[in-house]
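Format notes (please read before filing issues)

Several people have asked whether sequences and structure tokens are stored in separate files. They are not. Every record keeps both together, in the order shown below: the sequence lines, then the token lines. Line labels are part of the format and must not be stripped during preprocessing.
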Amino acid sequence: MGTVLLTVNEIERLFGCFMQTINNNLRTIFKSNIYRETDVCYSHKYYSLFREMEWEVAFYNLEIIIALAYPN
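Then the structure lines:
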């Protein structure tokens, strides 16, 4: 059984708020040790052979998305 994985940009569009708000709330959740980032976040590296670039994209699972939707 799979789970939902969304980037911060996708979470931003889902909730209709700014990316900075999402990032601030994620930081708050991780600092308070409600969730560990390693448990709810999956990072994937992408490579571009043409431009010789690499970048990393973080995907967050459904558990943290629900936590963002219902803050305490």
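For reference, the curators noted about this record: The chain has a mean pLDDT of 92. Residues 41 and 60 are 5 Å apart (CA to CA).
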